[in-house]
Specification:
about 575 residues, alpha/beta, Rossmann fold, 6-stranded mixed beta sheet, two-stranded antiparallel sheet
Length: about 575
């Protein structure tokens, strides 16, 4: 008898097949068990290794032993006419068929049942507002391990570049930079950070830089239990930093099993010196002082002298110049013209750059009152980067300018999900919520702001506005009087009037004018007290000066007192934010 025939007679092939099918099922169960029980990632690999080792043992065992009516016996002890291998074969065939049916059924279920409902007990699959989606991540600022502490700009910059690269993947939810970087140097555990940022995973690491030599370590951690899903260390030269970013992004996509709808995005490659200047500029840009913004602009200009086609440096320069105008550090005409040219240059190099589109739309809206262009550009930016907090912010302002309060609030809420500890996003949402739920949502946001910045002036001001809109002028005045700020002074003009302290309210308005309150602010103060003529007088001044504050007229609830006046529609039409304009633009 041939060896093949003997292997077949002793059911070695059937036992091997049964073992393989059963092993596949065990591996699938182990994979689910690792997630459910929070076991280390190597648990699955250990199960696979043990099953692999077991295969030759099972094959040898099935050759050497046979099942008989009296139990298990060595094959050589069984007389051929007493052998029941044919009956065992039928049972093995049945077992294989049953297990194969179970396996096929499991595969079909895995394809047809949405992941969110497949395992209700898995936190990562819950899609409620309070639970992080599984494919979500926060990139923490990498730790500077260099001997020179001045190299921190490089570790921070690398972290932000990684964040921006991952944010280009539509299937991946990435916490915004403002929120992720708020945990820099904080003595807080990974689980607490993941919970605060509403993400399922955290990417952290370290950077050691010495001249052109760099060592970068990155590790991806599961937020719920702190287990490492992946880690790696690179010892390279500075010129390899862009390839390393691509490798980290690819590793994250693979570890989180992200299904890409297109090609994996790649880091922008430039001259290494230009890259370092760009990273240094971003540090100064974040400081937002007159001197730091000017320094940032100079560093970016130097980087662009080295690489005139460096798109990221062009858009960063545009944002810096826009911020300089917004803070009143440089004249609007000069700053906005330069910022627009920088954004346009960005789009020449990178036509789908969402930051450039959004910034151009912002400039068109506030400087030129060109809402057709603003709507087109900002809407396109949102299509390209639907989860970008700054783009959502710009879109919220756009729809708010046309009085679409619900849409404005919805976009600010979405921005807050992406950037949950951003003071600016919380403040914007608090202001938008005043007309809907001042003593509820606005006060909730005030408390959130104080958790981030305990002595927040912004929180005090919005507390005042919440009580003012909630019909509690004395509580509003108490909050406003805690702050020496033009925004609080503006609030006092309304609270004092509601408390019957007209002379003090008049004095507050006069001081507001003296300190440079915008035409819209002063118009609101008069509209609140029902002085329509004075309110429209200041609106006319705003139209003549083409004041940026006029863009936000429809966001100020006290203006409701003058909406019935025919002059109101004329003002909106002159700005370009009337109902007819909104309908024409499809907003």
């Amino acid at each position: 008898m041939s060896l093949f025939s003997e292997l077949k007679r002793r059911n070695v092939f059937r036992v091997a097949l049964l073992y393989l099918v059963a092993s596949w099922l065990i591996i699938q169960v182990a994979d689910v068990g690792v997630s459910l029980l929070g076991l280390p990632d190597w648990t699955g690999r250990l199960v696979f290794l043990l099953l692999l080792i077991g295969l030759p043992l099972v094959v040898v065992f099935s050759w050497a032993y046979e099942i008989t009516p009296e139990g298990l016996k060595r094959e050589k002890e069984v007389e051929r006419d007493e052998s029941i291998t044919h009956e065992t074969a039928r049972k093995l065939n049945t077992a294989v068929i049953v297990l194969l049916l179970i396996a096929v059924g499991g595969m079909i279920a895995d394809r047809l049942i949405p992941e969110e409902s497949a395992a209700p007990g898995r936190t990562a699959a819950v899609t409620g507002d309070d639970a992080p989606v599984d494919k979500s991540i926060a990139v923490l600022p990498f730790v500077n391990m260099s001997a020179d502490p001045e190299n921190e700009y490089f570790s921070d910059g690398l972290s932000e570049e990684l964040l921006n690269l991952l944010a280009k993947i539509p299937e991946l939810k990435v916490a915004a930079r403002t929120s992720a970087f708020s945990f820099k140097d904080a003595d807080v555990g990974i689980a607490e950070i993941a919970d605060a940022l509403n993400v399922a995973h955290v990417l952290e690491g370290s950077v050691r830089k010495s001249g052109d030599e760099i060592r970068i370590t990155a590790q991806l951690i599961k937020g719920s239990d702190g287990y490492h899903l992946w880690s790696h260390t690179w010892d390279r030269t500075l010129i390899d930093v862009f390839a390393i970013q691509d490798e980290i992004a690819a590793a994250v996509v693979n570890a989180l099993k992200v299904t890409l709808l297109g090609e994996l995005p790649h880091a922008s490659v430039t001259d290494t010196r230009a890259y370092e200047l760009y990273l240094q500029a971003k540090v100064f840009a974040d400081m937002r002082t007159p001197e730091s913004l000017e320094r940032a602009a100079l560093l970016l200009t130097e980087a662009l002298d080295i690489d005139p086609d460096y798109a990221e440096a062009w858009i960063e320069l545009s944002v810096v110049q826009t911020n300089q105008v917004g803070a009143g550090y440089i004249p609007a005409e000069e700053g906005y013209a330069s910022a627009r040219a920088a954004s346009e240059r960005t789009l020449e190099i990178d036509p789908d750059n969402p930051r450039a589109l959004s910034n151009l739309g912002w400039i068109a809206m506030y400087w030129e009152w060109d809402f057709d262009t603003a709507a087109r550009l900002i809407t396109e930016a949102k299509r390209l980067a639907p989860g970008n907090a700054s783009v959502l912010n710009a879109y919220a302002v756009l729809v708010g300018a046309f009085g679409k309060l619900d849409a404005m609030i919805a976009n600010y809420e979405e921005a807050l999900q992406r950037d949950p500890v951003s003071m600016s996003v919380m403040a914007n949402l608090a202001g938008a919520s005043l007309a809907r739920d001042p003593l509820g949502r606005t006060l909730e946001l005030v408390e959130q702001m104080r958790k981030v910045v305990p002595a927040s002036v912004t929180a005090d001001i919005f507390e005042g506005w919440a009580y003012q809109f909630g019909g509690e002028p004395q509580l509003a005045l108490d909050a406003f009087e805690r702050v020496d700020d033009i925004g609080a002074l503006w609030g006092r003009t309304l609270s004092l009037y509601d408390l019957g302290r007209d002379a003090e309210s008049d004095a507050a308005i006069a001081e507001l004018e003296k300190l440079g309150g915008t035409p819209a602010m002063i118009s609101v103060a008069y509209a609140h007290r029902g002085d329509n003529d004075k309110a429209f007088e200041w609106l006319e001044r705003g139209l003549e000066a083409k004041s940026e504050s006029m863009v936000e007229l429809r966001m100020f609830a006290p203006m409701g007192n003058i909406h019935a006046d025919p002059r109101w529609t004329e003002v909106l039409e002159n700005v370009g934010i009337s109902d007819a304009d909104a309908e024409r633009l499809g907003l």
